[in-house]
Please model this.
Amino acid sequence: MNNQDSGTLYVVATPIGNLGDMSQRAIEVLKQVDVIAAEDTRHSGRLLQHFVISTSAIAVHEHNETKVSADLVKRLEQGESIALISDAGTPLVSDPGYHLIRMAGDAGITVTPIPGACAAITALSASGMPSDHFSFEGFLPSKSAARKAILEKRVNETGTLIFYESPHRILDTLKDMTDIFGAERESVMARELTKKFETIKRAPLAELLSFVKADNDQQKGEFVILIHGAEKEPDTSADTQELQRVLKILLNRVSLKEAVAIAVEITSLKKNQVYEQAVMLKNK
Ligand code: SAM
Model:
């Protein structure tokens, strides 16, 4: 239940490089709230100055978030409104804010998102990678063994994988990705998005690694790496094999519709599963 007398907690996205991406709504909310909870008040000071926002800011970062969140929730309960921002992009996406949003929600405070830039989604939108099914993996561990262990767990994932990476680890990470996913796995490096030296390069992993290795400039800045999902394994279960055998016989004799109806009766499998297999066999 929402607490009627409390203020609102706004989760405000800020640009990931290009100040032109700041939304009008974000500026208005930041001007109007009682206080801005910022990951780094000095860093955000430049952004606030640029947009002539004079609201005071307090720091909420990974080291003080739990403690400061309790104080902020109290202020919200007393009717103040607060805007949460991070250094860049959408708060909580590889950035602090989770504890605050959770505590505020539990206290019945209205949490309102003010959407805007997010490096992962910006990269995905221009990557040419399948976007119907993807997972955000954030930053990998800094040590190679731990990094490889995580990557190994993702080898058979069929959706697009999205990672964040920093300039001093980009080469090592691309090397480890090539070892684990294979030289041929399609990948994208999206570097310095929305900024002057924006680069979006799609290539098999080994080729991408050589491209980055060959040019020091390509090792600078901020990175999103996307990895194409694994090819789907053919379904080799006994049920599917039997269904395919039955359907092959039927499709040679009757219409697709009849074949599906008869195969459902024979196998007791679900109609949409039978239909899917029948269409696949018919199109082979
Ligand atoms: N909250 C942010 C968001 O919404 O994307 C992400 C914050 S995270 C601490 C910073 C990382 O995001 C960078 O190391 C980089 O991997 C990625 N990133 C942020 N801005 C980027 C940009 N302009 N181009 C490419 N990657 C970027």
Q: What stands out?
A: The longest strand covers residues 134-139. Residues 158 and 229 are 4 Å apart (CA to CA). The chain has three domains: 8-117, 140-227, 237-282. The longest helix spans residues 238-251.
